[in-house]
Specification:
By secondary structure, the protein is an alpha/beta fold. The protein is built from 5 helices and 10 strands. A 6-stranded mixed β-sheet has the order 5-4-3-6-7-10, sandwiched between helices. A two-stranded antiparallel sheet has the order 1-2. Strands 8-9 form a two-stranded antiparallel sheet. Helix 3 links the parallel strand 4 and strand 5.
Length: about 190
């Protein structure tokens, strides 16, 4: 979900496979069946917040940004940036990294109490590594919530396709997540 208003729900997606190809052919007024949302979202936090999105992971953070007063956005893209103007309307600061620059490299961890992130797993792992190192070296206590982008099939926790490893054993991303505290997730690699 990218945005919600009184009359609609907006989705932002990248045409990548058969399902999103079907979505791309929908027209206004077409009927679709929606189930969910399942699982949990970001917890309400107070303090200075950074939103860190990578690629299509920037899409769900927009609605989060609209509901947090004191947030900055850090958005990373392989090629060209999207949603920059929309984020500028709802965030105090917007920082963009494209191409060879990594969004995790332009983020000053010490400035934030919380970081909420969504994007590719390697980006979120790099972010967690940087936060853990900064917290240890600087004595800060920045906490991170990650929204995992695991493949999901059933959406109800029955098929186990979306299983992720955590400090508390395996969890179902669709049912127990997709948002977890970053320190609880075991990132491979």
């Amino acid at each position: 979900i990218h945005d919600i208003d009184d009359n609609s729900i907006s989705f932002l997606y990248k045409v990548f496979g058969e399902g999103t190809q079907i979505f791309s052919r929908l027209k206004e007024g077409d009927t679709i069946k929606l189930e969910g949302p399942y699982g949990n979202g970001y917890e309400k936090v107070e303090g200075k917040v950074a939103l860190v999105g990578g690629g299509i992971g920037v899409a769900p953070l927009y609605l989060v940004a609209k509901n947090i007063e004191n947030c900055d956005a850090y958005l990373g893209f392989r090629k060209e940036a999207i949603l920059e103007e929309e984020y500028k309307e709802v965030c105090k600061e917007v920082h963009i990294a494209t191409g060879d620059k990594f969004v995790t490299d332009i983020l000053d961890i010490e400035k934030y109490d919380y970081i909420l992130t969504c994007g590719p797993t390697p980006m979120m792992k790099a972010l967690m590594d940087k936060v853990e190192k900064t917290n240890a070296e600087k004595g800060t206590n920045t906490r991170v919530m990650v929204s995992l982008e695991n493949r999901m099939a059933c959406g109800m926790g029955a098929c186990l396709v979306c299983t992720c490893k955590t400090q508390f054993g395996n969890k179902k991303t669709c049912k127990d997540g997709p948002v977890f505290w970053g320190e609880d997730v075991i990132f491979n690699g």
